[in-house]
Design brief:
By secondary structure, the chain is α+β, with helices and mostly antiparallel strands. It has eleven helices and 15 strands. Helix content is 38%, strand content 17%.
Length: 392
């Protein structure tokens, strides 16, 4: 067993309170009685990953108990009680056991059983795992940053490949939706094979309360940093479009949509553009290329296609995102700041902001058409038109 130190987020107190409420309500549903104050204090402390000694110091209600009594009597009886409640509910396996170190797992299981897929997920605290070895192979060296919805990213080294750097993405294993997304990302990326413009997925697996994806480490400059307000020249934008559409064509050949193409997820490495972040990757119907539907939206504001606001996406949705990136590069204006629309078509008006060759502008206009059926329907189709343009 490895001792982990929890990384406390700004929302930790709220997450712990939500976790306690879920357990308390579940107990009431089964027994018609809520947990007493001592029991709630121990659960709260366990959700915060406190030791029994720290709980005794932190919570007034436990202050006057002997530490041995808290751990060997109060806590021991509590875990037996919760185990019994789980078994009485007939919703858990008879061999299921509630334990202090598995308390977030108990919260997760209650959520699953009660069908909380579409509720706001609880952000189970991330773990600082610096110095730990995952699967006895990936040694975590540095915590990089935290993302929304319980995701953290770390730099690690692959001990089996001469300490080659890799990126470890850690997600909270908290709801069926997140696990399905994780499995889909791992399965789809494993199936499509290698491409020079995609980071290699080395492994994906679950451990304890968390899900892990291990990627090739990409070190470069995000496109966001290069879109500084100074308009790009046409030849540079055309080159960017061809590069992005080339890798998108590869993805679409496997009937997949990225659904979150934006400048943050495009990295320049040695004059090559790399597409990253596949958390929203999803399969399109193989025969009809039908719209995929989701209960939640994906994408960055300004680059996200209109239909994605209603939870739908097609191949043309990724085309829209790439087209808006081109508009941003050509005008130096973020798409959110292009506020004028054609009242008859719903299309954004941008050509009045910059002098651009009509042939290139027409291609971009088709890519960002408000109605997805009027856009390019594949990266291959748009790529063909771009490559037919004379050199600029």
């Amino acid at each position: 067993y490895h001792t982990y130190k929890y990384m406390y987020s700004a929302n930790l107190r709220e997450d712990v309170s939500n976790g306690l409420t879920i357990i308390n309500d579940f107990v009431y549903q089964v027994t018609d009685e809520y947990l007493n104050d001592n029991e709630q204090a121990i659960i709260r402390g366990s959700l915060e990953d406190l030791t029994y000694e720290t709980m005794q110091q932190e919570y007034i209600i436990l202050k006057y108990y002997a530490l041995r009594y808290i751990s060997r009597n109060l806590a021991y009886d509590l875990w037996r009680k919760l185990t019994s409640v789980a078994q009485q509910s007939k919703l858990f396996p008879q061999d299921y056991r509630v334990k202090k170190k598995k308390i977030w797992h108990f919260v997760d299981q209650i959520n699953q059983i009660q069908g909380e897929d579409n509720s706001e997920p609880i952000n189970i605290p991330s773990l600082i795992i610096e110095g730990e070895k995952l699967r006895d192979r990936y040694e975590v060296e540095e915590h990089l940053f935290d993302c929304d919805a319980g995701e953290s990213q770390f730099r690690a080294i692959d001990l089996h490949l001469g300490n080659k750097p890799c990126l470890v993405i850690q997600r909270s294993n908290q709801t069926p939706r997140i696990r399905q997304q994780f499995e889909r990302e791992g399965k789809n990326l494993s199936s499509i094979g290698r491409h020079s413009q995609l980071p290699e997925l080395k492994a994906y697996f679950a451990e304890e309360q968390h899900l892990y994806l291990v990627y090739e480490y990409i070190s470069g400059i995000a496109l966001t940093e290069l879109l500084t307000g100074q308009p790009w020249q046409e030849y540079r934008v055309k080159s960017l479009l061809i590069s992005l559409l080339t890798v998108l064509e590869f993805i679409q050949q496997h009937n997949l949509t990225h659904r979150n193409i934006n400048p943050d997820n495009i990295i320049q490495v040695d004059n090559q553009w790399i597409l990253i972040d596949f958390a929203c990757l999803k399969e399109i119907n193989h025969v009809h290329r039908s719209i995929t539907h989701s209960t939640f939206t994906q994408g960055m504001k300004g680059y996200m296609a209109p239909e994605q606001h209603t939870g739908m996406a097609t191949f043309a949705s990724d085309i829209y995102a790439i087209g808006m990136i081109a508009v941003h590069a050509l005008t130096g204006i973020h798409p959110c700041n292009l506020r004028k629309y054609n009242p008859q078509t719903g299309n954004k008006i941008w050509r009045n902001q910059v002098q651009v060759n009509d042939a290139l502008s027409n291609i971009i206009d088709r890519a960002i058409n408000y109605h997805f059926c009027d856009r390019y329907q594949s990266a291959k189709e748009m790529l063909k038109d771009l490559k037919s343009l004379p050199s600029v």
